[in-house]
Write a structure and sequence with these properties.
Layout (H helix, E strand, L loop, with lengths): L3 E7 L4 E5 L9 E3 L2 E2 L6 E4 L2 E4 L6 E15 L4 E3 L1 H12 L2 E4 L4 E4 L2 H13 E13 L1 E6 L8 E3 L13 E3 L3 H11 L7 E2 L10 E2 L2 E2 L3 H8 L3 E3 L1 H26 L6 H20 L7 H21 L1
Parallel strand pairs: 1-12
Antiparallel strand pairs: 1-2, 2-6, 3-4, 3-7, 5-6, 7-8, 7-11, 9-10, 13-14, 14-18, 15-16, 16-17
Helix pairs in contact: 3-5, 6-7
């Protein structure tokens, strides 16, 4: 194996990444004298290791078994590998292999007894030898993601990457749990069905409205620029946080009184009518529909409170 490794550096995130080489296990690789298995130092995504500190020294350890001698289990003595082979050669001179019987024939009975006892009583002794190899580090320009669910799609051999796309795989359930935990809601108060994501999630045995629409919009993987992936992840988190906060607002005793809700609902309906009646340019039709849709969602929400 060549003792060299490419280490990618991302000047935007100030993170470093490299690929586990030659099929070696992560546990056999050290950066700056420390194992890279510590999650506080970085993370592993596929074959790539992402770390926060600049690698000054990268080493990997190999081990091999070396034959160092033979133990005589009858006399409790040890002979060297050289002595063992010398005796084997002496035995070879006293016997011949019979292909018909598939056995050795010996010149004397004593020679046969000696050979059988010798091979039966001598057991090989092995020593494990561990070797630490230092890698020659080559730093290259590389995009690095600080999030485990945003993975750059690049080649490990690329020297310079300018417009690398990334794949964002949302983990809405974990994000939802993190938001709940930050709000003091432990898992015992949450009920998440096993096969429908967050569509029918409950807190305190009450469904959270809006989750089905969220799953339709924010549960898909996307391939886009790193910035767009981060933006989608942030939008998903904000939307989830909004739904959880609104869920508790509905349950709170301090929720808006019926009269206030009715006034807001009337005003929203008036705004909806005005937006629908606007004579917009063709290219603005999509924006108009988007605004109407959002107002409609708010109207439905306040209808639930009225």
């Amino acid at each position: 194996m060549e003792n060299s490794i490419k280490v990618g550096y991302d000047s935007i995130t100030n993170l470093y990444t490299f690929k586990i080489f030659g099929g070696f296990s992560v546990k056999n690789v050290c950066v700056n004298g420390q194992p890279i298995t510590d999650p506080l130092r970085g993370q592993k995504v596929g074959e790539l290791i992402t770390i926060k500190e600049q690698p000054e020294v990268i080493t990997y350890e190999t081990s091999e078994r070396k034959l160092i001698g033979y133990d005589n289990i009858e006399t409790i003595t040890t002979i060297s590998v050289k002595q063992y082979h010398e005796i084997v050669n002496q035995i070879a001179e006293t016997r011949k292999y019979d292909e018909d019987s598939d056995e050795y024939t010996y010149e004397t009975l004593e020679g046969e007894i000696f050979a059988n006892r010798f091979f039966r009583n001598h057991k090989a002794i092995y020593q494990t030898i561990e070797t630490v190899h230092n890698m020659n580090i080559e730093f290259i320009s590389y995009p690095v993601s600080e999030y485990s669910n945003i993975v750059p799609l690049y080649s490990i051999d690329t020297k310079n990457v300018f417009e690398t796309k990334c794949k964002f795989t949302p983990n809405n359930i974990q994000t939802f749990k993190d938001i709940c935990k930050a709000s003091g809601i432990d898992d015992s108060r949450i009920d998440i069905p096993t096969h429908s994501g967050l569509r029918y999630v409950k807190i305190d045995d009450k469904y959270i409205s809006g989750m089905e629409e969220l799953e339709k919009t924010f549960s898909r993987e996307i391939i886009a620029s790193y910035e767009e992936c981060v933006e989608r992840m942030t939008s998903t988190k904000n939307k989830l946080k909004e739904l959880v906060e609104f869920h508790f607002a509905k349950q709170s005793k301090n929720v808006l009184d019926k009269g206030t809700v009715g006034s807001i609902l009337t005003e929203l309906i008036n705004i909806e009518d005005r937006v629908n009646s606007l004579d917009v340019r063709v290219k603005d039709h999509n924006s108009q529909r988007y605004i109407v849709t959002k107002i409609g969602e708010m109207i439905n929400t306040y209808k639930q409170l009225s």
